[in-house]
Design brief:
The chain is about 80% helix and about 0% strand. It is mainly alpha-helical. Helix 3 packs parallel to helix 7 and helix 5 packs antiparallel against helix 7. The chain is globular, with a radius of gyration of 37 Å.
Amino acid sequence: MVSCFAISGQMRFPSILLLGLVYMVYVLIGGVVFWKLEGSQVEENIAQLLEERDKLLRSIPCLDQQAIDTLTEVVQRAISTGLSLKINQTMDGFWKFTSSAVFAATVITTIGYGNICPRTMEGQIFCVFFALFGIPLNVVVLNRVGKYMLAIERNICDFMETKTKYKQTVRVMIHLLSLATGTAVFFVVPMIVFALNEGWSYAQAMYYCFISLSTIGFGDYVADSNPNRTYPGGYGCLVAVWIFFGMAWLALLINHTIDILERINARLRQHGNQGLDSRSDSVECCDSTSKEVSNMHSELTEDQAPERVSKATSPDNMDKGASS
């Protein structure tokens, strides 16, 4: 019993340490890569901004550092409210109905771009209670939608398996087709739409799609938030619908991936347990063999004992003892 506990403890404890080590190494590698890729770019941007500031001061002699600071504050306030200083007209800013609906969706989905946030005390208090009840509701609804998607996929698999004898191949093909369809609907088509309406490159649009649906939400690229662009009607509502169903599909895909990894881990453990069982079987075989040998030895000694007693009590041996 103690040996079994020791074996199971030796198998589990190092696996937890190994998993934690892999996690830490993965994070550190990511940090090093981002540091090398983005660190030099930040230094170049700082140098470029300082050069442009000095050029502006030289071109406008009456403009001093205090005036630049005041202008910077005005620009920052305009950006935070969603207004543009490039055109001479009044705009709705961030808090129009469509952008407000998108903001509500980003709150309960925990994306949180950060480009828009409530400024009034009433809005901040309402945001707290709205998120407090909305986030659990969002989790329940996304889980239910994901289950419906999975049920539809399984029903298609079951129906197609009845039509052919290659059941495993059909199931794999349907899973791949579902993955390709979801990728096209929730990544490729939105990528093209965002590239056309936001003026982004395809790489930037794909980056925005993944950052949004995975709820990372950096806020460096946000749809329906550029005050210098005119968007078609209902564009913001379509973005909110895309976020909802796209998150459900991506959650389903992540669950599929976790399931595959767990199955691989279970098979590896099964192979490991089979190796341990074979070792234990060999140990038990050796133990049984040694027990059989000891039993045979004890039986032989027990069989030889009466012979020795009979020889010791025979008349010849007693006469030899008397003569001696």
